[in-house]
């Protein structure tokens, strides 16, 4: 989810304001979290999408240079091995990348095709899955500078999945689908038909109004998709992971040189929600995990859910199904809070595929987790979060910390 930061999500950073005002910018995400496992302390190590692409798919840290590795490197020389290749080699998955943007931007199309994706669908190809009557009714208002708006993209995605479901029954190739939304990318120009789905007037400031409207629009778009997929039975035997690619800090820190030079939670703290309607045990639906987790953990988590072992990869992440120990905090949202033991496990999906069972075991207690943060636009400044403390490391050699 593009630029989707935790600060404004009603079940994460905006919990106190939601409790005080009964308002939220993200009503559907909030409601959906009651049916899945919500990771409330989830961070991206970077604040630019091309870098988070390699972080989430391959579990690696992004390049710490002014330009991303995708923009500056020959795609064949990166030679990264991660989710698309692993799922294909181990379980014969088809890998599809879906984003209604120009995939030539920063060499995405070349990189993705060279790193395991079988099919790439961009701002033009997604339209192939819309009914002709719908395509002919599209106007300029359904797009903006970055691509097709999310309601168009996700409506097309619904038809794509429906057509795929109608293929060879029972024998379909398993699917890994990486979907990027775009409508919450600045400059936050929405269709004229947009109307907020709920009242969140107390959240709005002069600086964030357009951004919050864009978040609400994305929330509406995801609601339309998930509701229709559930109604049509297209989320059976499916694990759905919703994650922000990065946040956005310029509304609160409006000096561009400061924004570029520091790592703020507004830019690095992102939502992460796991939903698996028929695979997640009832007692784990509505679970909230407050362990520190990172975008680099996505690859390790998915392979762990599928019980995969002995594969080549370049990731540095840890499975989010494995408790981190002394900073473990778990809540059961629907029935009050409870504490997890130091070496308990969050085996969130007990059977993520009919072909591979999730692995469960007792884990040893580990030291408190730390996650590395960085802002690429001035690469000399880095951040390190350990529990509730964040350390800023400057190119001069000085350091500072904050909660």
Automatic annotation (TrEMBL):
One Pfam entry name: Sulfatase
Top-level taxonomy: Eukaryota, Sar, Stramenopiles, Oomycota, Peronosporomycetes
Domain Sulfatase N-terminal: 1-307
InterPro entries named in the record: Alkaline_phosphatase_core_sf (IPR017850), GAG_Ulvan_Degrading_Sulfatases (IPR052701), Sulfatase_N (IPR000917)
Protein name (database record): Sulfatase N-terminal domain-containing protein
Organism: Pythium insidiosum
């Amino acid at each position: 989810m593009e630029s989707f930061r935790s600060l404004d999500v009603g079940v994460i950073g905006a919990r106190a304001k939601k409790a005080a005002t009964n308002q939220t910018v993200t009503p559907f995400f909030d409601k959906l979290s009651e049916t899945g496992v919500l990771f409330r302390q989830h961070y991206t190590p970077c604040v630019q999408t091309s870098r988070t692409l390699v972080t989430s798919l391959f579990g690696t840290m992004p390049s710490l240079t002014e330009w991303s590795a995708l923009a500056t490197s020959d795609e064949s020389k990166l030679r990264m091995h991660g989710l698309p290749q692993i799922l294909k080699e181990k379980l014969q998955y088809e890998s599809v990348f879906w984003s209604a943007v120009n995939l030539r931007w920063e060499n995405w199309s070349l990189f993705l095709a060279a790193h395991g994706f079988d099919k790439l669908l961009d701002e033009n190809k997604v339209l192939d899955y819309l009914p002709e009557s719908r395509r002919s009714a599209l106007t300029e208002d359904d797009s903006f500078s970055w691509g097709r708006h999310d309601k168009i993209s996700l409506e097309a995605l619904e038809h794509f999945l429906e057509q795929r479901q109608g293929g060879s029954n029972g024998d379909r190739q398993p699917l890994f689908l990486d979907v990027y939304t775009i409508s919450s990318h600045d400059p936050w120009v929405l269709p004229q038909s947009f109307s907020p789905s709920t009242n969140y007037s107390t959240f709005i400031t002069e600086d964030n109004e357009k951004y919050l409207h864009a978040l609400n629009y994305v929330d509406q778009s995801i609601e339309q998709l998930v509701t229709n997929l559930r109604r049509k039975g297209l989320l059976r035997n499916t694990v759905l992971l919703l994650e922000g690619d990065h946040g956005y800090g310029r509304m609160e820190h409006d000096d561009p040189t400061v924004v570029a030079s520091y790592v703020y939670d507004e830019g690095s703290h992102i939502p992460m929600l796991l939903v698996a309607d028929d695979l997640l045990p009832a007692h784990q639906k509505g679970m909230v995990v407050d362990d520190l987790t990172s975008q680099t953990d996505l690859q390790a988590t998915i392979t762990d859910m599928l019980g995969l072992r002995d594969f080549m990869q370049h990731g540095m992440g840890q499975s989010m199904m494995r408790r981190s120990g002394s900073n473990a905090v778990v809540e059961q949202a629907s029935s009050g809070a409870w504490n997890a033991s130091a070496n308990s496990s969050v085996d969130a999906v007990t059977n993520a595929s009919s072909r591979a069972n999730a692995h469960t075991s007792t884990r040893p207690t580990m030291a408190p987790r730390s996650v590395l943060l960085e802002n690429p636009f001035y690469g000399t400044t880095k951040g390190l979060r350990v529990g509730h403390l964040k350390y800023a490391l400057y190119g001069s050699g000085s350091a500072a910390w904050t909660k």
